[in-house]
Write a structure and sequence with these properties.
The chain is an alpha/beta fold. Helix content is 29%, strand content 18%. The protein is built from two helices and three strands; from the N terminus they run E-H-E-H-E.
Length: 77
Amino acid sequence: VKRSTTETNSVALPVESPRPSRVLIVDDSLSVRRVLARTLQRHGWDAQQAHDGVEALEIIQSDEAIDIVITDIEMPR
């Protein structure tokens, strides 16, 4: 018994690219925040910055999802 083969056509569907991972950089040093943010952005991260813990909490409590927080331990507020 000989079987016939059926070719299937592939249809390329548009694929939504996932949103970049979001990182919050919290440091009272502007230069540290800038260097770290640029480095992470070159690697596909969406980097946000906060200059102290109070500003970081305001950002985290907003409606935007933060995936990871990188923070300095010794800083004001």
